[in-house]
């Protein structure tokens, strides 16, 4: 991204130009850049990611050793997680981005892209889609964006799967664990699934909005105000309900409430945004 005269930073780096300013990239990898979408990551849709998964499958079928997806970081964790669920591949698929604009002093985009290509070109099986940022390799199923502007903005509850340094990839044994694979959802309207974060004195008004399913970010280890317990129990009997902690780390206690009806409880591995 390049700075605009207004002070903002519109997307101005297109496919075909991302790899050009990266020193040493062409020396060890034959990179073919493909334009997929030229939109802010906040404007990507689930259908976009379905089509991206199709495009990745096509490239790997054509003989690519690996694939790197470069996108804005605001929804990077969600895109990566959905790709992780949709793709049936052992070849490396790596998602990366940049926290600083291309014109900023210390722009991190070139280094992140070089690291992502290094991992993709290695052919290593990371047990699913991975996210590479700030020299770290994270599993797409675990990573979250945890800072609004620092370069090291992505973290996983149990730490990264590995690191990339001096052109070498170091992975630990956790990379062997694969994600569940889901079938493609029918093309059509996307279900309404709001994420509701409970707060002090919450009156539960957001829980009453019409929805196909609900994710509730609960207090602590899965707690709610006493006056909302019956309402949450009723909601769990009506629609799929996922409970997670608003702390974003640690277990949600499974015996706190004896809900009846369809529900699931999200543990420490995945934040509410990718679960949605």
Automatic annotation (TrEMBL):
UniProt cross-references to InterPro entries, sorted A to Z: Asp/glu_Ase-like_sf, Asparaginase/glutaminase-like, Asparaginase_C, L-asparaginase_C, L-asparaginase_N, L-asparaginase_N_sf
Pfam family membership, one: Asparaginase_C
Chain ranges of the L-asparaginase N-terminal domain: 8-174
Coiled coil: none
Domain of life: Bacteria
Ranges of residues in domain Asparaginase/glutaminase C-terminal: 193-258
Name of the protein this chain belongs to: L-asparaginase
